[in-house]
Amino acid sequence: MPYDFDQITDRRGTHATKWDVGPGELPMWIADMDFPTAPEIQAAIQERAAHGVYGYTDVPEAWYDAIAGWWRDRHGFSMEKDWLLFSTGVVPTISSVVRKLTTPGENVLTMTPVYNIFFHSIENNGRRVLESPLAYAGGAYAIDWADLERKLADPQTTLLLLCNPHNPVGTIWDRETLERIGALCWKHHVVVLSDEIHCDLTDPGYAYTPFASVSDLCRQNSITCIAPTKTFNLAGLQTSAVAVPDGVLRHKVWRALNTDEVAEPNCFAAEAAVAAFTKGGPWLDALRAYLAENKRQAWAYLERELPQVRPVLSHGTYLLWLDCGAVTQNAQELAARIREKTGLRLSPGDVYRGNGKRFLRMNLACPRSQMLDGLSRLRRALGD
Q1: What distance in Å separates the CA atoms of residue 366 and residue 17, rounded to the nearest whole number?
Q2: What is the phi-psi region of residue 24: left when phi exceeds 0, alpha when psi lies from -120 to 50, beta otherwise?
Q3: pLDDT (tens digit per residue) in 56-82
Q4: Rounded Cα–Cα distance for residues 249 and 256 (Å)
Q5: CATH number corresponding to 44-279
Q6: Which terminus of the chain has a smaller tally of CB atoms within 10 A, N or C?
Q7: CA dihedral sign, ordered 98, 350, 355, 231
Q8: pTM (2 d.p.)
């Protein structure tokens, strides 16, 4: 079935966070897509809406089967039903786990630059962010293993927040890397929470590896956050899952989610997830191909028109991580100047910490004409 990703959907006037911008402005910042979700998901939501009664809702058996089937067939990883817990979102899960598994003043470690809301979940709960900056050389990122182990060995470090694939840099961590992270965390008694919300948004021909799949140690010592929300543009439905293979750790997470009242679905959350994971495959494959072509054209445009801006090579997410070091060391100032001059809104890289002060993040999950408009605005802002 053909899908039209070139069609522009007007999101203004829908209270969309991304599109809360002024007239003529173009938002390419927050990580949601400007594509309608798969028709099969729309149909499932419309069918449920047509019932007319929207009461309290239990998680159906089909939800467990759909998730287990997707990870088995799509990612070669067998999940057991007992591992899975419903949550209203990945961020609520992270915040709940931080509160349950750590105490105020302890370190929560993460490799930066990384998804900025990690810092909110840590600091808003009175814990300390401990950064292990990724090494950056030759336009690519890698783990600084010596720094990572030194910080894991700190007795005050009790939780690692892993991003796989890694937002904003787009790295898909390979099996060997994940196994090494897992071994170090086990050695130093640090639990791993792996945020895998971007896992299905990889370039065609590239696949992600679930952290819990790589070794017994990783499986026993991990909490994995997964969701259809990034993949199928369903963030507003507040639907996600947590996979925790170890029974003792799972009980703690279950208690955390229920204590914080984020363990119950609204009446559309499970229906949409089941439709996504049972019927959304063809739509996703078409989307991945479209996004890969967006990336290819963006790279070619920047190389031709803005060689001073260097995108970081990545095969995960729909985000372009732009090295603007030849232009600025102040991403906030640069992002503000671009917006003021052209109306293009990008994410300043310093909010992701690490070496983000020289970067901008650009969201390419939009119709191609819209993406090219954004690139043209970027050239006008920086090309003078």
Answers
A1: 15
A2: left
A3: 999 999 999 999 999 999 999 999 999
A4: 11
A5: 3.40.640.10
A6: C
A7: positive
A8: 0.97
